[in-house]
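Appendix B. Chain record.
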Amino acid sequence: MKPLLIIVFSMSFLFSKGQQLQTLDEITIRGYGRGLECSFVMSINNLDTTEYFLLSFVNMEYSLISDIQIISKNSQTELDSLISDAEKIQEWIINNKGIKASFRKGEFFIKNPGERNNVIMITNEKHGIIKGYTFLQPKKFPILIQFMKSRKLKK
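Structure tokens predicted for this chain:
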């Protein structure tokens, strides 16, 4: 809940006065560290509304500070691209069980050192530089995909 509040406060700085944020749906997926906070949010500015998909997590690079990372998708096209990348990672996991390899697609990176220790890294990357990351077990990855597919963003 705390990271979600931080998301809301962070997003409020992005918007000028007169805008309000309303959470439409949210889920917390527990993983390594503090997990992922996923939400669909609506920005209301007078009579204009815009919806966003937000994925937030505490950057696992740091242990002494809470560096909250936010991946936001502002359009259905961007969200569909994120979903497609996630589905390709999921498909790769299924087709490559037991193979020592890794695969990257968009914000997702799967490291498969063997059959039992699969790890999905979710990154916040800007211009080729990773600004933050967290990890999620592959068995919990379908929960993220299902949540991302649960709504369509409206403009």
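Further analysis of this model is presented in Appendix C.
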